[in-house]
């Protein structure tokens, strides 16, 4: 993966940064004049230092900690993001102190003061909840308005629009139709609930970002800076590059490894794709397919332990379980996603007769590890402390500390002591400022999602929607059961059909929501609304949370807003929509597996009622089902598939993923005709198999 041809085709660091900014509004930061840039960098560095210190020496009281984090974030959002993403910045003048427009100064200061107001009055807060003073309502109104604008700037319109609709629902409840009708709430009561209680802006979502997520974002940035991400890519190249379609397999494996420290689909796509996509194209993969492979692989990073973006830490708060439980539950579904992409990549390579990389094009695994083994130390430290049962933020503290230690050692090996010290300080400054900057949009979004969750708890709309959805699903189940009454056996009970239709509707909503808002916000909103729905049908809370999470992630490769696929298409110079459609097809494993563990929770390993027999059946069926469905899409098993074979394999795939022994056996029987016809062709050249197929 390091040949001269690759070097010429891969992107420069500046091109990678520009591409990431183009497709990810969360990192589309404004250029700043020198003096203001120094002020902003200092604030970012101080924010990182504060979190690094508190992770190791104790988190302050929750309200103070969340308020301080939110105050810094809101000020920095208005320093870092422009009013309009395509607008020109005004010149320095009387209305632009230090080169920043006056309205941005006003919003930054107002947001910071409003965020700090609740911690400031904390001792009197118990006397004001339910009976706020006029100043409380004013401050709460300011914070809500500033939050809406902060999220609009850093993420776009969808989430603020959703938040406004929820606020309108709370206010105009008496005008709502049918079961959605409620008495309505005054603006004073709305602000009281969203601002002064722990059910709104200062709730669990903001708390998790300030207490856990910030630290792990910082760890990921520091780990990448010391070279751990590059080590993963080089090791994946050495291990998988020589096989058929090698660069595509390298893309899958390196994205999985990089995903263990980075929860961003787009950052993962750009980082690994800048190397793997040109190599895939060079050996014969179509451009859109190369982009799709990288996009589908990179979205798996959000479901890969131990970092998993922000959602793993939200789960431990909402479910009240240890982080190790969440990470264990994520292992098999994450594996299934990458297995599904690998199978399709392999079948495509076999179908087109694509080669692997030559020995000259590949790094040597031992040489790569020997040169970069030290960079793995922080990850081992992080995982070891997590497994010991200590708090996640303490694990992040020691992980970041290990990154700093490795950074210093690397510089001492390259430079004299004085230069090494200067370089270490400079790189630490850069890492801490970048880490804090990457947390801005997710913090603002979490605080605004607190508004949505607050409205749900204030109005009880979650249970009303749950009643509506389950009623519709039950009606559909009754109809389908009636249509299938002529069969001599029962395919699925009415209860199971009701759950199936409910899951389908939930999945569709998750994907649609994910088209406009990031995974973390999507997860938070859907859990507030969907958890009561699935709970009514007896789905375990852990299963419900994972189901919603996985379908929210799937939105990154689901057109029309498949941002990871579009970023990959930018690298490949491919048709973006075609790349998105192909990426969705490659990610079908991720789409199937949530239904498997919804009906067979043992696949998550740590659910109530776990049995090894149920786990083995679900795992075998899911793997075989994904393989057969991949064969249908590729038109290839061991040789080209005939039309009747594709129909049989498609039916078998659906039966295999059903957690039922009878369905699994029928699925296996349906596979046999194709296997028996194609097995004798295995020793023949691909071209000859094409003719026989």
UniProtKB/TrEMBL annotation:
Where mainly found?
membrane
- How is this protein situated with respect to the membrane? Multi-pass membrane protein
Q: Which domain of life is it from?
A: Bacteria
Q: One Pfam family name from the record?
A: DctM
Subcellular localization is given as: Cell inner membrane
Q: Which GO terms describe its molecular function?
A: transmembrane transporter activity
Q: Where is the TRAP C4-dicarboxylate transport system permease DctM subunit domain?
A: 143-607
Q: Which GO terms describe its cellular component?
A: plasma membrane
Q: What does this protein do?
A: Part of the tripartite ATP-independent periplasmic (TRAP) transport system.
Could you tell me what this protein is called? TRAP transporter, 4TM/12TM fusion protein
Lineage runs: Bacteria, Pseudomonadati, Pseudomonadota, Alphaproteobacteria, Rhodobacterales
């Amino acid at each position: 993966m390091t040949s001269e041809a690759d070097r010429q085709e891969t992107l420069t660091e500046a091109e990678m940064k520009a591409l990431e900014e183009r497709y990810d509004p969360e990192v589309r930061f404004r250029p700043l004049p020198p003096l203001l840039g120094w002020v902003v960098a200092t604030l970012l560095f101080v924010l990182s230092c504060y979190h690094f210190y508190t992770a190791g020496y104790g988190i302050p009281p929750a309200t103070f900690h969340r308020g301080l984090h939110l105050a810094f974030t809101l000020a920095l959002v208005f320093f870092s993001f422009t009013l309009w993403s395509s607008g020109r910045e005004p010149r320095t003048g009387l209305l632009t102190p230090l080169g920043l427009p006056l309205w941005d100064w006003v919003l930054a200061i107002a947001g910071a003061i409003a965020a700090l107001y609740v911690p400031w009055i904390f001792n009197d807060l118990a006397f004001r909840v339910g009976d706020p003073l006029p100043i409380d309502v004013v401050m709460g109104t300011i914070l809500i308005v500033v939050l809406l604008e902060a999220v609009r700037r850093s993420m776009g319109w969808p989430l603020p629009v959703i938040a406004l609709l929820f606020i309108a629902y709370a206010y105009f409840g008496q005008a709502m139709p049918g079961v959605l009708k409620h008495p309505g709430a005054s603006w004073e009561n709305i602000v009281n609930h969203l601002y002064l209680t722990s059910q709104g802006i200062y709730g669990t979502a903001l708390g998790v970002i300030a207490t856990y997520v910030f630290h792990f974002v910082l760890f990921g940035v520091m780990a990448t800076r010391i070279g751990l991400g590059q080590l993963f890519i080089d090791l994946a190249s050495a291990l998988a590059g020589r096989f058929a379609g090698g660069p595509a397999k390298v893309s899958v494996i390196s994205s999985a490894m990089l995903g263990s420290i980075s929860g961003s689909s787009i950052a993962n796509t750009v980082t690994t794709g800048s190397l793997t996509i040109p190599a895939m194209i060079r050996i014969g993969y179509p451009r859109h397919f190369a982009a799709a492979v990288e996009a589908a692989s990179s979205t798996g990073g959000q479901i890969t332990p131990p970092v998993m973006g922000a959602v793993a830490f939200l789960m431990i708060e909402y479910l009240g379980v240890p982080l190790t439980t969440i990470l264990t539950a994520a292992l098999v579904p994450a594996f299934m996603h990458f297995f599904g992409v690998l199978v399709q990549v392999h079948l495509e390579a076999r179908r087109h007769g694509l080669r692997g990389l030559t020995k000259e094009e590949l790094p040597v695994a031992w040489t790569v590890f020997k040169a970069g083994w030290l960079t793995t130390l922080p990850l081992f430290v992080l995982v070891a402390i997590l497994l010991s049962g200590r708090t996640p933020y303490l694990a992040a503290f020691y992980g970041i500390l290990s990154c700093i230690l490795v950074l210093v050692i690397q510089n001492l090996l390259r430079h004299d002591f004085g230069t090494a010290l200067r370089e270490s300080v400079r790189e630490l400054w850069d890492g801490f400022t970048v880490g804090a900057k990457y947390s801005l949009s997710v913090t603002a979004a979490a605080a605004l999602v607190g508004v949505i969750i607050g409205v749900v708890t204030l109005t009880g709309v979650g249970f009303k929607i749950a009643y509506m959805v389950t009623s519709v699903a039950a009606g559909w189940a009754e109809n389908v059961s009636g249509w299938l009454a002529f069969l001599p056996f029962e395919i699925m009970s009415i209860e199971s059909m009701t759950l199936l239709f409910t899951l389908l509707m939930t999945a569709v909503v998750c994907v649609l929501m994910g088209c406009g808002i990031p995974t973390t916000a999507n997860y938070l909103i859907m859990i507030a609304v969907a958890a009561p729905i699935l709970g009514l049908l007896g789905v375990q809370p852990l299963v419900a949370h994972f189901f919603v999470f996985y379908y929210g992630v799937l939105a990154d490769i689901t057109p029309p807003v498949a941002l990871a696929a579009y970023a990959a298409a930018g690298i490949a110079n491919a048709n973006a929509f075609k790349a998105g459609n192909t990426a969705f097809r490659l990610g079908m494993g991720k789409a199937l597996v949530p239904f498997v563990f919804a009906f067979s929770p043992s696949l998550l390993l740590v659910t109530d009622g776990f049995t090894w027999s149920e786990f083995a059946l679900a795992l075998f069926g899911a793997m075989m089902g994904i393989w057969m469905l991949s064969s249908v899409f590729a038109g290839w098993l061991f040789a080209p598939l005939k039309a009747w074979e594709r129909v049989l394999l498609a039916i078998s795939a659906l039966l295999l993923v059903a957690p039922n022994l009878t369905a699994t056996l029928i699925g296996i029987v349906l596979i046999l005709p194709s296997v028996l016809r194609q097995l004798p062709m295995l020793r023949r050249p691909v071209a000859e198999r094409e003719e026989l197929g």
